[in-house]
Design a protein that fits this description.
Layout: E1 2-6, H1 14-17, H2 25-41, E2 45-49, E3 60-61, E4 67-71, E5 81-85, H3 88-100, E6 105-106, H4 110-116, H5 124-133, E7 141-145, H6 152-168, E8 173-178, H7 196-209, H8 221-227, H9 232-240, E9 245-255, E10 262-272, H10 277-294, H11 298-313, H12 326-330, E11 335-341, E12 344-350, H13 359-372, E13 388-395, E14 399-400, E15 413-418, E16 421-425, H14 435-446, E17 456-460, E18 462-465
Parallel strand pairs: 1-8, 2-7, 2-8, 3-6
Antiparallel strand pairs: 1-10, 4-5, 9-10, 11-12, 11-13, 13-18, 14-17, 15-16, 15-17
Helix pairs in contact: 3-6, 6-9, 7-8, 11-13
Length: 466
Amino acid sequence: MVGYLLPHPPVLIPEIGRGEEKKCQATLDALGKIADEIAEYKPEVIVIISPHAPVFSDAFFLNDKPEIGGSLARWGVYGIEFRFKNNLEIVQDIAKMCSKEGLTVGFVSDKIQKRYGVSRDLDHGAMVPLYFVTKKYKEFELIHTSYCMLDDIKLYKYGMILRRAIEKHGKKGLIIASGDLSHKLSYDGPYGFAKEGPEFDRLLVELLQSSNTRALYDIDPELSEKAAECGFRSIKVLLGSFEGYSIESKVYSYEGPFGVGYCVAAFYQKGEESSSLFEEIVQKREERLKKIRENEDEYIRLARESLEYYVRHRRYLDHIPDYVTERMLRERAGVFVSIKKDGNLRGCIGTIFPTQENIAKEIIRNAVAAGFHDPRFEEVTEDELDSLVYDVDILSPPEKVNSKDQLDPKKYGVIVRKGTRQGLLLPDLEGVDTVEDQLKIACRKAGIDYESEDFEIERFTVERHK
C-alpha cells in the first residue's frame, strides 16, 4: 500500500493561479514528483479523502455515482473537466464492512443534494490533487470519500476498511489524504494568525520527516483545533490503511506562502509491525480521558455526573453530591455548560441570569440541556458518555456598554439585544479575535443585521472551569 498527503489550494493550478502559483514552487515541484511516482506505481484504484466533500458529524460520506466528475468553472476556468469511473462494487463493500464495524456511511441522494445544497461532484479537495496526478497517469478508478467528526479510533478503523475492501477485489490501491495544514500562519493571510498554527505545522512535519507516525496521535486535539487545519483527519484515515505494517514517511516539501501550510508527503509500507497501532490509539484515548476525569473540579464533575444520571435514568439528579462546595449551594449565577467530544463541540446551553436556587442546581439543569436540547446536535447517548469532556462557565451579571471601546473578546462575553431578539457569545473563543467578529456572530445568532440595525450591547465576564 502507498499513500500520500497532498494539499489542495486551487491557486496551485496555473489556469487559476495565473502566476501566483509560482509562489508555491516547492509544492509544485513536489507534486510533479508524486505524479511520476504514481504513474510508475500504476494503481488500479485511487481513494481520495477530501475535507471538502460532504462532511457529516457521525458518518463517512461515500460517493456512489457511477461516474464522478467536476470542473473548474467556479474559478472562471472553462474547458478543464474531470471524469472518473467509480468502482461501485468496492463502494458497496466499504458500506457493508462499515456497518459490521459499527460505523455509518452516508450516501448523498438527489433529494438530499437539493434539500441541503450538498453535491456529489468532485470538490476542490479532490480536483486539485487529481489535476497533477492526471498530468502523468489516468488509468484508474476513483473512490471519492471524506472523513467525519468522530474520534481517532473510528477514523483509523475507516482506513482499515478502505484497504480491506480494495484488497478483497484484488485491486492495486493507493490512498490520497487531501488536506492543508494550519490556515493561521500569518497576520496577513486570509485567516489571520494563531501561535498554534506554526507550532502544529512544525510538529507534524517533524514527525513525518522522522517517520514517527505513531506520535501523531500524541498531538493535543486542542492544538490542531486552534491551528485551524483541514488535513489531520485525512491523514488519520490514511494511516489506518497501514494497520499491521510499519510506515516510512517522507516529506517532499512544506511551505506556507499565503498563510496556509502546504505539505506534500508520502507514506510507504514496510515490514510487518510487532504491535498494533490501533490498540495503541485505543489505550492512549483511555489514558487521556482518565487523566481528565482525575483532574475534574467540583463544577466539571457535577456537570458530567448530572448528564450521565439523566441519560441512564431519564430524570434529573435528585440529590446534591457531598463534594459540592458551600459557594455552589449559597450563590446564584447564570451558567453555561459546554460539551466536547474528541475536540469537537457536542452541545452548549446556558442561562444568562440564574433560574435555579443556586449554582449547583443551575449546573445540573444546564448540563442536561446541553446534552439533550441543543438544536444543533442529536441527543447524547449512553455509549458516548465515556468520551465526553465538559466546560462550565459561571457568568457575572451583565452590564450595559456605551462604546465598543469597552469590549475585549478575550476578556468579556457580549449580549446583543434588539426588541425581543437577543444573542450571546462567550469570551475567549477560538477564532473570535476582534470586537467586530464577536458582535457579528452574536448578532447573527440573534437574527440582527449587524450592518443596518441598531442594537444594545451588554458585556459580562466568566469564571471558566475546564
